[in-house]
């Protein structure tokens, strides 16, 4: 697609980055610089992604960290690879465990929603298969940020302050390490203030020297398990030692002549593909991008897709997830026919018989990485391993407690996962990575930026800058404050319960890299946070 880079329907926002030799796009300027530095030192796109990943764990701990999960799509120059870095429930977590501790549903904080952290093993597996530089070189900038301090940008400071305020209300031995790690002065760091974390530096140095084995079987593993045993956690030596990443075949769907790729379940990438498959049944170009009809069709497709995902998606290692059936074209056509002129409520369709960070990189040789990592809900579980900087995620709160449901909590099971990287190709040629973070906003964000680019011809920066919508439940639809008034009125007339949301972070934060036919790159970064795309 030939973008008119001078055409920008949201002129108040930024122009896209254009670069020939490589790009790094992240939600934090210093993380982008860490990745770019690795590219300029001779590293490839995978090395740069790992440098950015480690830096983000230090720089943006309110969204991701060493105790979280991660996923990636990697174009190696010839083909696309997928890797799932999702941790499993501890062997001691079950419906009976919850009941014994007085819970009928999954809690959001404390030890019970903590699953095995997967991101460190993911980093190691990516480096082993695709890396070209040593880990001590790749992690050097992240370690320097942790030891010497890095200033906190405005949007990170805001989410950090919210996380600390909540942490100050919690009591219990399992939460004792949080404030000493993330509020060493008794409060969250203010915008522009330096944050240092000796614990992060200690862990990253250990990983650079010993690899992921230190985290899952060595001294870091001992610290994790000792802290769990002392404060009521379920993680065991066996839970950590048995953890592995999984190389997976990406799932995909053709849309407007391009192929959109996602990570398969237990992630929610299938939601974006189902929504796009339904939208393929409509000619969106007959309706202006800024029209209530275009918004309505996209919203209803997303609602239908979520209804199916919530009913059928679980851990494919434990249950039969009917991914192929969910993406069946005839089935999607039938689902699309349910979309009328008014807001609807939908159940799952029958099957045919028979606080996250997203970032992406590209190098001069055409290798590209689409990567995402998270501790979920800001700082995750609120449980932090003292002196190691490891904030443990709470992905287990994604389980349900309905016996027989494919996503029901069980020992060794992976929960329904919200974090999803995306990738676009065209006739077998890599176009590039894209992603929008933010819980269940993610597949909705993927759908919106793909529609913006492929239906409405917007370049990556314009596709990200355009006002977004977010469906949550029933007919409730959140719109950004920049949404034109005529769209708001049109959606209200269609029966949507519209809420104007003044908080930009509610609509996700994205990055996009698009490789042009001559090998150069066009990239966009998120205006709703402190993000920046850099290149050379």
UniProtKB/TrEMBL annotation:
<dbReference type="InterPro" id="IPR043138">
    <property type="entry name" value="GGT_lsub"/>
</dbReference>
<dbReference type="Pfam" id="PF01019">
    <property type="entry name" value="G_glu_transpept"/>
</dbReference>
<dbReference type="GO" id="GO:0016740">
    <property type="term" value="F:transferase activity"/>
</dbReference>
<dbReference type="InterPro" id="IPR043137">
    <property type="entry name" value="GGT_ssub_C"/>
</dbReference>
<dbReference type="InterPro" id="IPR029055">
    <property type="entry name" value="Ntn_hydrolases_N"/>
</dbReference>
<dbReference type="InterPro" id="IPR052896">
    <property type="entry name" value="GGT-like_enzyme"/>
</dbReference>
<protein>
    <submittedName>
        <fullName>Gamma-glutamyltransferase</fullName>
    </submittedName>
</protein>
């Amino acid at each position: 697609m030939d973008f008119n880079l001078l055409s920008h329907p949201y002129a108040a926002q930024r122009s896209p980055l254009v670069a020939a030799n490589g790009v790094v796009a992240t939600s934090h300027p210093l993380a982008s610089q860490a990745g770019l530095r690795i590219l300029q030192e001779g590293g490839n796109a995978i090395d740069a992604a790992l440098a950015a990943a480690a830096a983000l764990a230090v720089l943006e701990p309110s969204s991701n960290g060493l105790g979280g999960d991660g996923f990636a799509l990697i174009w190696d120059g010839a083909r696309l690879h997928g890797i799932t870095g999702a941790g499993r429930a501890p062997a001691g977590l079950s419906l009976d465990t919850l009941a014994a501790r007085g819970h009928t549903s999954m809690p959001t904080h404390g030890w019970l929603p903590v699953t095995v952290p997967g991101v460190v093993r993911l980093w190691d597996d990516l480096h082993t298969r695709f890396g070209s530089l040593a880990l001590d070189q790749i992690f050097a900038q992240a370690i320097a940020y942790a030891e010497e301090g890095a200033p906190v940008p405005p949007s990170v400071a805001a989410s950090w302050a919210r996380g600390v305020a909540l942490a100050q209300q919690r009591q219990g031995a399992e939460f004792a390490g949080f404030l000493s790690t993330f509020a060493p002065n008794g409060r969250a760091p203010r915008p522009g203030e330096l944050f240092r974390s000796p614990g992060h530096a200690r862990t990253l140095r250990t990983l650079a020297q010993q690899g992921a084995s230190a985290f899952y079987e060595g001294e870091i593993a001992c610290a994790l398990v000792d802290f769990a045993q002392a404060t009521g956690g379920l993680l065991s030596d066996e839970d950590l030692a048995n953890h592995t990443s999984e190389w997976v075949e990406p799932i995909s769907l053709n849309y407007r002549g391009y192929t959109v790729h996602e990570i398969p379940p237990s992630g929610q990438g299938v939601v974006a593909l189902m929504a796009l498959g339904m939208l393929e049944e409509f000619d969106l170009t007959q309706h202006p991008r800024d029209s209530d009809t275009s918004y309505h069709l996209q919203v209803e497709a997303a609602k239908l897709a979520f209804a199916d995902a919530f009913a059928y998606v679980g851990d494919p290692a434990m249950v039969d997830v009917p991914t192929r059936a969910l993406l069946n074209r005839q089935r999607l056509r039938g689902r699309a026919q349910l979309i009328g002129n008014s807001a609807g409520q939908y159940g799952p369709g029958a099957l045919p018989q028979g606080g996250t960070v997203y970032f992406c990189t590209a190098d001069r040789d055409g290798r590209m990485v689409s990567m995402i990592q998270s501790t979920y809900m800001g700082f995750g579980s609120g449980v932090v391993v003292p002196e190691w900087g490891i904030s443990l995620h709470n992905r287990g709160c994604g389980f349900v407690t309905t016996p027989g449901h494919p996503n029901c909590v069980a020992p060794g099971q992976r929960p329904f996962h919200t974090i999803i990287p995306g990738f676009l190709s065209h006739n077998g040629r890599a176009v590039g990575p894209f992603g929008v973070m933010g819980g269940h906003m993610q597949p909705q964000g993927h759908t919106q930026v793909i529609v913006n680019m492929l239906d409405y011809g917007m370049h990556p920066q314009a596709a990200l800058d355009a006002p977004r919508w977010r469906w949550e439940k029933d007919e409730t639809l959140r719109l950004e404050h920049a949404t034109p008034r005529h769209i708001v009125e049109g959606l209200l007339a269609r029966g949507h319960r519209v809420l104007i949301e003044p908080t930009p972070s509610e609509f996700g934060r994205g990055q996009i890299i698009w490789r042009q036919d001559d090998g150069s790159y066009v990239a966009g970064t998120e205006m709703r946070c402190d993000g920046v795309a850099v290149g050379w």
